[in-house]
Amino acid sequence: MDVWFDSGTSWCGVLHQRNLPLPSDMYIEGSDQHRGWFQSSLLTSVAVTGSAPYKQVMTHGFVLDENGQKMSKSLGNVIDPAMIIEGTKSNVPLGADVLRVWVASVDFKYDVSIGPTSLSRATDLLRKVRNTIKFILGNLYDFKLNDILPYSELSELDKFILHKLYLWSQNITHNYEVFDFHQVILSIADFISVDISAIYFDACKDRLYVEAPTSKIRRSCQTVLYILLNEIITAISPIACFLAQDAIQHLPNQLKQDPKNFIKWFSQNKEWHRPELEIRWETIFNIRDEFNKLLNTAREQKKIAANLEANLLIKYSETSNLMKAIKSFEEEFTNILVISKVTCQLFSNDDNKIEKLGVHEMELKDGSKITLYLQNATGCKCPRCWKRISLQPDLLCTRCDNVVNK
Fold first, then answer.
1. Long-range CB contacts (< 8 A, 24+ apart) of 166-173?
2. What is the CA radius of gyration of the chain?
3. Strands 358-363 and 369-376
C-alpha cells in the first residue's frame, strides 16, 4: 500500500471508525508535510466525505542543537528529552516543567535551537514564577474565603493591579487561542517581573507585615493576592502543569478545594477594567522614577543610607487635578516608594526655605508642574515598622502602637 494513501486515510481509521468527532480540531506535523500527510488526508477525505478531515492545520519547525546544526547520532549532538528531565551523571535533572516552558518559549513555527543557555533561561523563568507563588501562599496563611472584600472596598493600588490583571488575562487568552505560546511566556515573565514583583509586592509588604491581621487594608491586599494566585496558576497550568498542581496542593488548609473548582479560565471581570486609573498610576510611577534618581544621588553622596531615612515632599499647583487625586492616597504612595512619608502640598511663597537633600521639577500629563523635594526623615525609627515616624527613640509609632495594643 502506498505510504501516503495509508497515512492519508488515518482520519477514517482514527476518527470515523471510533465515532470521534470528524473533522478533527487540528492536524499537527512538521513543515515538510504540506505536500505530504496534510495533502493526502485532504484529498482522500474530500473524495469520500466532500469535506476536509481537519478544521485547522498547524506546522512546526525542527529542533536543532545550540549551534543551529541538525541533530544526528553521527555528530553526537542529539539531546534526549529524558536527559533534560531526569538528568545525567554530569547534569542535574531539570524536570518536565522546564522542558515544557522551553518548548512554549520558542516560536515553534520555525526551526529552534536547544542547549544549556536556552534551558537556563527557562529554568530562571520557572523559578521566578515559583517564587511569586511562594510569596503569595506565604501571605495567605490566615486568609479565608469569607475574608474576600468586594471590589468597592479595595484600595486604589489594589484596583489598579486588578486593572492590569484584566488586561493581562485578555492578552494571555488571545495568545493561547492563536497558539502563540511564546507570547504567553513573554507575557507571564513581564507581568510577574514588572507589575507584580517590582511594583505590587514591594508596595504591599508594609500592609501585610505591619497592619493589624484583620484590618480592611490588609484584607484588601490579601483579596488581590488570592485573585492573583488563581489567575497565575490558570495561566501557567497548560504549560507548567506540575508547578500548578504543586501550588494547589500547598494552599492553606482553609483555602483548599477541588482543583477543578480552583482552576477556571480567567474571569475577566469587567468591573476590574478601569482605564482612568492608568493615567494616575502612570504619573505616580513617573514621579517614582524621578524620585529614585534623587535618592540614588543622595546615597552616592553619603547623605542618606537607606530608603526609610527619606521623606518626599511634593509641591503642586491648585490647577493640577492629577495631584489632587494622588494626594488622596499618600499612604499608598509612601509604600510604593518604600520611604517613611510622602506629603503633597500646594505651592507657597516660602518654598525657597524648604530644607532638602535634592530637588527636581517635572511636568505632568495634564500640563501642570510639580517640584519634588527629597528630605531627611525627621522622626525616630519605629522598632516595629522601621519607618522614621516615631516621636521618641525605641518608641512605637502611633500606627504600630494601635496595632499592638488593639
1. 166/268, 166/269, 166/270, 166/272, 166/273, 167/273, 168/195, 168/231, 169/231, 169/235, 169/266, 169/267, 169/268, 170/266, 170/268, 172/235, 172/266, 173/265, 173/266, 173/268
2. 28
3. antiparallel
Side chain identity at residue 85, one-letter code: I
The 3 state secondary structure assigned to 261-326 is HHCCCCCCCHHHCCHHHHHHHHHHHHHHHHHHHHHHHHHHCCCCCCHHHEEEEEEECCCCHHHHHH
The percent of residues above 90 in pLDDT, for the chain, comes to: 62
d(C-alpha 26, C-alpha 53), whole Å: 9
Q: Classify burial at 88, counting beta carbons within 10 Å of its beta carbon; exposed 0-12, middle 13-18, buried 19 or more.
A: exposed
pLDDT tens, residue by residue, 41-98? 999 999 999 999 999 988 888 888 888 888 878 887 888 889 899 988 788 899 999 9
Rounded CA-CA distance 298/135 in Å is: 31
pTM above 0.85, yes or no: yes
Residue 279: the pLDDT is: 85
What pairing do the DSSP bridges indicate for beta strands 369-376 and 388-390?
unpaired
How far apart are alpha carbons 236 and 222 in whole angstroms?
21
Whole-angstrom CA distances from 225 to 222, 243, 253, 360, 374 are 5, 18, 16, 35, 32
Pick from 84, 73, 74: which is nearest to 114 by CA? 84
Q: Rounded CA gap, 266 and 31, in Å?
A: 33
How many CB atoms lie under 10 A from the CB of residue 83? 14
Mean pLDDT of the chain, nearest integer:
90
3-class secondary structure, 372: strand
Q: What is the pLDDT of residue 263?
A: 62
Helix axis angle, 241-249 relative to 216-236, nearest 10°?
150
Cα 34 to Cα 14: distance, rounded to the nearest angstrom: 20
Instruction: Tell me if the bond preceding 259 is cis, omega within 30° of 0.
Output: no
The rounded distance, in Å, linking the Cα atoms of 406 and 402 is: 6
Is residue 297's pLDDT more than 60?
yes
Residue 27 CA to residue 40 CA, distance in Å, equals: 12
How many Å separate Cα 129 from the centre of its chain? 8
Q: Which of 174, 175, 151, 173 is nearest to 163 (CA)?
A: 151
The helix (run of H) or strand (run of E) holding residue 38 is helix 37-49
Q: Which of 305, 318, 277 lies closest to 376 in space, CA to CA?
A: 305
φ and ψ of 57, to 5 deg: -125, 135
